[in-house]
C-alpha cells in the first residue's frame, strides 16, 4: 500500500533553485509524491525574519510554484518557523502573524506547516504556549491542512542536549489537547533515523493520539558533517510503515537531481515490502533518473560518495572522480562534480545563523 508521499524542502545550506523545484515536482508526481512543502532553512522570511514580508520577486516565485504544483496535481505548502514566537505572543506578534498568514493565503497554499523545531524548548508550559499559537492560526488560515513540528519531534536525546531537556508530558499534552485534525511531524527514533518500525510508530501514535506525519531525514545531507557525503542508496528499514502513518514527507539532499534516486526507491519499498531489495531498487531508480551508463558508474562509486566522503577521499581520488563525471553531459554528473569541489559544504556557522 502506497501512503501519501511528498517532499519537504527543509534542509540547511544552499537552497534549490526555483527551476529545480518545479522540475522536481514534475518528475516525482507520477511516483506518488503528491505534496511539496517549501521550507528551506535559507529562507529567512520564514524563519528569523518571519514577521517581514517576502520581497515581491520571492512572493511571485512562490505563487508561480504553487500554480505549477496545482497543474501537476500536487498539493503545495509552506513551512513557517516563527522563531521563538511562544516567548511573547502579544498583540504585536499576532498582527505580524496575521499579515504573514494573509500573504501565504494569497500565494494559494494547500498545506501550512508550523515548525517549532530548532528552538529552545526547556520552558514551563511549552506545550500550552504552542497550542495557543496553533489554535489561533487554525482559526485564520485558509490552508486545507495544518501540520506542526513539535520542538521535540523524535525520541533522540540529541534534541534535549541542544535545545534543553524536554518538559514532562510535552508530547502527551500536545497529543491530548490538539484538535485531531491537526497533523504532527515525527522523524522516528532519531533525528536521522536508520529504521522506523511499526512497533515504534504504534507507540508514538498512542502518545500523539494520532498517526504521525513522518518527516524522513534521508537522503538529506546538510550540516557540517553530512554535507561531506552523498546519500544515494535506496531507502532501507522502512517496510511495514504504511498503515501506521498519516503521510511520509522526505527531506531531500542539497542535490536536486541526485535526490530523485533514493526518493524513487521509497515508492518501491512501499509497493512491494516483502520483496523489496534496496540495492536493486537503487539501480532501477538510478537508471531511470540518470540512464544506464551513468547509473553503473554511480553504483561503482557509491562507497566513496556515501561511506567515505570528502574528508577521507584523497585529492588525487577526487580529481580522478571529477574528471570521469565531468566528461558526462547530465545534471546528475554535474552535481557530483560540484559536490566533489565542495560546492555544498556547510559549516556550523551556517546552521546557527539560518
Give an account of the 3D structure.
The protein has helices spanning 18-28, 56-71, 91-107, 126-138, 158-163, 170-177, 198-208, 223-226, 256-271, 278-290, 292-300, 302-308, 315-326, 331-340, 348-353, and strands spanning 5-9, 33-38, 75-80, 111-115, 145-149, 183-186, 213-216, 247-250. Strands 1-2-3-4-5-6-7-8 form an 8-stranded parallel beta barrel. The chain is globular. It has 15 helices and 8 strands. The chain has a single domain (5-284), classed as TIM Barrel (Alpha-Beta Barrel), CATH 3.20.20. Helix 13 runs antiparallel to helix 14 (331-340). By secondary structure, it is an alpha/beta fold.
Summarize the structure in short:
The chain is an alpha/beta fold. The protein has helices at 18-28, 56-71, 91-107, 126-138, 158-163, 170-177, 198-208, 223-226, 256-271, 278-290, 292-300, 302-308, 315-326, 331-340, 348-353, and strands spanning 5-9, 33-38, 75-80, 111-115, 145-149, 183-186, 213-216, 247-250.
Amino acid at each position: 500500500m502506497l501512503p501519501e508521499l511528498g517532499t519537504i524542502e527543509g534542509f540547511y545550506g544552499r537552497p534549490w533553485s526555483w527551476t529545480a523545484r518545479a522540475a522536481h515536482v514534475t518528475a516525482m508526481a507520477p511516483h506518488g509524491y503528491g505534496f511539496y512543502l517549501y521550507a528551506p532553512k535559507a529562507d529567512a522570511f520564514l524563519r528569523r525574519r518571519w514577521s517581514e514580508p517576502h520581497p515581491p520577486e520571492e512572493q511571485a516565485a512562490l505563487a508561480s510554484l504553487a500554480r505549477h504544483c496545482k497543474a501537476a496535481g500536487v498539493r503545495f505548502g509552506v513551512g513557517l518557523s516563527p522563531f521563538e514566537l511562544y516567548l511573547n505572543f502579544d498583540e504585536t506578534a499576532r498582527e505580524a502573524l496575521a499579515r504573514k498568514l494573509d500573504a501565504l493565503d494569497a500565494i494559494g497554499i494547500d498545506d501550512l506547516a508550523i515548525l517549532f523545531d530548532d528552538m529552545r524548548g526547556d520552558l514551563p508550559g511549552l506545550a500550552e504556549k504552542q497550542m495557543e499559537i496553533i489554535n489561533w492560526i487554525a482559526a485564520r488560515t485558509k490552508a486545507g491542512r495544518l501540520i506542526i513540528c513539535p520542538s521535540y519531534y523524535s525520541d533522540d536525546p540529541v534534541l534535549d542536549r541542544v535545545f534543553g531537556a524536554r518538559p514532562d508530558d510535552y508530547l502527551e499534552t500536545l497529543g491530548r489537547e490538539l484538535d485531531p485534525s491537526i497533523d504532527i511531524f515525527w522523524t522516528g527514533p532519531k533525528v536521522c533515523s536508520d529504521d522506523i518500525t511499526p512497533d515504534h510508530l504504534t507507540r508514538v501514535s498512542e502518545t500523539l493520539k494520532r498517526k504521525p506525519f513522518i518527516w524522513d531525514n534521508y537522503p538529506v545531507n546538510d550540516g557540517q558533517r553530512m554535507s561531506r557525503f552523498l546519500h544515494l542508496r535506496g531507502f532501507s528499514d522502512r517496510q511495514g510503515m504504511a498503515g501506521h502513518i498519516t503521510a511520509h514527507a522526505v527531506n531531500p539532499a542539497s542535490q536536486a537531481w541526485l535526490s530523485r534516486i533514493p526518493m524513487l526507491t521509497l515508492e518501491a519499498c512501499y509497493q512491494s515490502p516483502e520483496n523489496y531489495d534496496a540495492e536493486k531498487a537503487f539501480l532501477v531508480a538510478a537508471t531511470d533518473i540518470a540512464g544506464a551508463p551513468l547509473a553503473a558508474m554511480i553504483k561503482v562509486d557509491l562507497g566513496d560518495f556515501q561511506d567515505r566522503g570528502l574528508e577521507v577521499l584523497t585529492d588525487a581520488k577526487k580529481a580522478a572522480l571529477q574528471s570521469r563525471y565531468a566528461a558526462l553531459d547530465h545534471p546528475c554528473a554535474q552535481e557530483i562534480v560540484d559536490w566533489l569541489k565542495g560546492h555544498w559544504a556547510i559549516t556550523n556557522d551556517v546552521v546557527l545563523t539560518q
